């Protein structure tokens, strides 16, 4: 397993792109905690901190697909670096101005979220051209999913350390400067500079005109609800079982389970269509959430939390492959960005839903929310399976003349113009020009 990932990361540009993307995503991974700490240090209430974080989240949810579409149209450097700088400047305004005047704080939070660069989608668009070999691309998607767990664990620790060393405002500034440095590392790399999306059929829906993509977004919206609700239910469970670090035990176990599952999944090649494999993984994911309603003792509950996370990273890694297959031609970054947005919105919805459910039905009812959400995610995927059947497009064509890059399965390390396999012109759209 280790040798396989080591060979993957030794591919030209691979380690740089992965690390740069992770570093560039630090501001997004730490925003909720950093904003709460800063708001409280400035004398604001938890309610105000929550609203400011929500404004950032709304901006992020809106901005990701819009910026993703811009990346597909203009290329990565021309969109991602200016966006990263704009987001950092907005967060710097918030850190310097503080909470007064409050409209400025809201505007800064909205802008910081809106201009968060779509580094996740951009990296997934680059992998096929950088790695070339299909089995390595699948492994890279798994490593990508695992890395998300790492960044969302390490990021808050870094914020806490910066607050302890300097201040809450300094933490905001330093984290965002680091984020710009990460984005810069990605966009000046040869794969990012040379990558070009395929010409796209002009349509205002963009990636959303793919029924297969809509199925995936609907499915992973409910997976996001499951994850968001587990965080709230874990706090309620901790209150009934000694408080302290109990909730962190559960959430850490979930993260460790996802890490182990993702590494194991990406360490071996998989035969057969990924759409079929995704259904199996979502079945396992949904089943893994159900035992949480038993709410046993702390040790057993920690083990169940780890089990519930075991199939999360594999499911994410597999859905990245399926999104790649079903995104309409020329919309791959936008499609991945829509997945990020849908997952984040689902997570927020789960967080909002679990609290009232727990107040009326207790902790067991709170843990029933992820079980129910997992079941609905599976139902959506199974009920709409016909939209994910078969190969979405024809045989990949060669790169258009004058566009740098190669085709899937080309030379490893050679940048690719477009990893989207849906090469056929979408039926029903007759625009005579490209957008």
Blueprint of the fold:
Elements: H1 2-10, H2 14-24, H3 26-41, H4 46-74, H5 77-97, H6 102-114, H7 119-131, H8 134-165, H9 168-187, H10 190-194, H11 211-240, H12 246-266, H13 274-289, H14 298-309, H15 312-326, H16 332-383
Could you characterize the architecture of this molecule?
- With about 425 residues, this protein is mainly α.
- About 70% of the residues lie in helices and about 0% in strands.
- It is built from 16 helices and no strands.
- Helix 2 packs antiparallel against helix 7 (about 120-130), helix 7 (about 120-130) packs across helix 16 and helix 8 (about 135-165) packs antiparallel against helix 12 (about 245-265).
- The longest helix is centred in the C-terminal third of the chain and has 52 residues, at about 330-385.
- The chain is globular.
- It starts with a helix and ends in a 52-residue tail after the last helix.
- The model is unreliable at about 395-435 (pLDDT under 50).
């Amino acid at each position: 397993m280790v040798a396989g990932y080591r060979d993957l990361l030794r591919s030209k540009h691979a380690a740089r792109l992965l690390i740069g993307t992770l570093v560039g995503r630090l501001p997004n991974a730490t925003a909720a905690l950093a904003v709460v700490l800063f708001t409280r240090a400035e004398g604001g209430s938890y309610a105000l901190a929550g609203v400011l974080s929500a404004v950032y989240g709304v901006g992020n949810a809106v901005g990701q697909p819009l910026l993703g579409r811009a990346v597909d149209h203009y290329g990565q450097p021309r969109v991602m670096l200016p966006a990263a700088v704009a987001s950092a400047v907005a967060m710097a305004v918030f850190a310097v101005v503080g909470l007064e005047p409050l409209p400025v704080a809201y505007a800064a939070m909205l802008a910081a979220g809106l201009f968060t660069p779509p580094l996740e989608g951009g990296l997934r668009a680059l992998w096929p051209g950088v790695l070339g070999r299909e089995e390595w691309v699948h492994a890279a998607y798994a490593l990508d999913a695992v890395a998300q767990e790492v960044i969302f664990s390490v990021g808050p620790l870094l914020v806490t350390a910066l607050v302890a060393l300097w201040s809450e405002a300094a933490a905001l500034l330093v984290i965002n400067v680091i984020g710009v440095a990460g984005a810069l590392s990605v966009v000046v790399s040869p794969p990012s500079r040379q990558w070009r999306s395929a010409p796209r059929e002009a349509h205002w829906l963009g990636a959303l005109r793919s029924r297969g993509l809509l199925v995936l977004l609907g499915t992973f919206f409910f997976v996001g609800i499951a994850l968001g609700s587990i965080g709230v239910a874990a706090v309620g469970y901790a209150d009934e079982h000694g408080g302290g670090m109990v909730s962190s035990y559960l959430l850490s176990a979930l993260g460790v389970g996802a890490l182990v599952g993702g590494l194991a999944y990406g360490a071996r090649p998989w035969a057969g269509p990924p759409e079929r494999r995704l259904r199996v993984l979502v079945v396992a994911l949904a089943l893994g959430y159900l035992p949480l309603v038993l709410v046993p003792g702390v040790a057993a509950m920690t083990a169940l939390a780890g089990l519930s996370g075991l199939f999360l990273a594999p499911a994410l890694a597999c859905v990245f492959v399926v999104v790649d297959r079903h995104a309409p031609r020329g919309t791959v970054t936008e499609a991945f960005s829509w997945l990020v947005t849908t997952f984040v919105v689902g997570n927020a919805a789960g967080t909002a839903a679990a609290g009232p459910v727990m107040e009326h039905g207790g902790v067991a009812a709170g843990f029933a929310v992820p079980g129910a959400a997992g079941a609905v995610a599976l139902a959506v995927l199974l009920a709409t399976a016909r939209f994910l059947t078969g190969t979405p497009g024809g045989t990949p064509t060669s790169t258009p003349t004058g566009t740098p890059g190669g085709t899937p399965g080309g030379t490893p390390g050679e940048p690719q113009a477009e990893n989207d396999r849906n090469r056929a012109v979408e039926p029903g759209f007759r625009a005579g020009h490209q957008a």
